[in-house]
Amino acid sequence: MPAVTQEAHKDGDFFVDYEEKVFEDVKADEGEKALVTFHTVAFEGSIGLVNILNAIRLNRKGYETSILLYGPGVTLGIQRGFPTLGDEAFPGHQNFAVNLKKFMGEGGKVFACRFALQALYGHGEPSLLPGIVPIAPQDVLDCILLHKKANAVILDTWTV
């Protein structure tokens, strides 16, 4: 049996060179927009959180950035907590709320489809995090089309 002679890894060790950047740091030109859409269920995978973080980053790069929550994506924008709303029942339980609030606090806009909110998930508009704008189901397509007409950067997130 071969002997393992390498030291065990410890806190603070690096596995990769995270400081080297291969591509230039792109910033938005005046008036450029971005849209990040979510058709994904909260807590069913990492993409919901990852693309909220991407939306924050797009906003900080100067893009006029919007998030569109539709279908199961509305579950990212509802208030939650246990034993009371806002309480963190487990580490990371409030990741969506914390980061959506940060995004809106930095000027980002968040829209949520009323149809999905009520018909699919049994919530009303008071269930949304403060600052999220409820929209008609017909607005979902128009939101996307308006951003497309504006040549916006569009990140579509769709999980099943």
From TrEMBL:
- Please give the superkingdom of this protein's source: Bacteria
Q: Which Gene3D superfamilies match?
A: DsrEFH-like (3.40.1260.10)
- List the InterPro entries: DsrEFH-like, MSMEG0572
Output the SUPFAM superfamilies linked to this UniProt entry.
DsrEFH-like
NCBIfam families found in the cross-reference section = MSMEG_0572_fam
What name appears for this protein in its UniProt entry?
MSMEG_0572 family protein
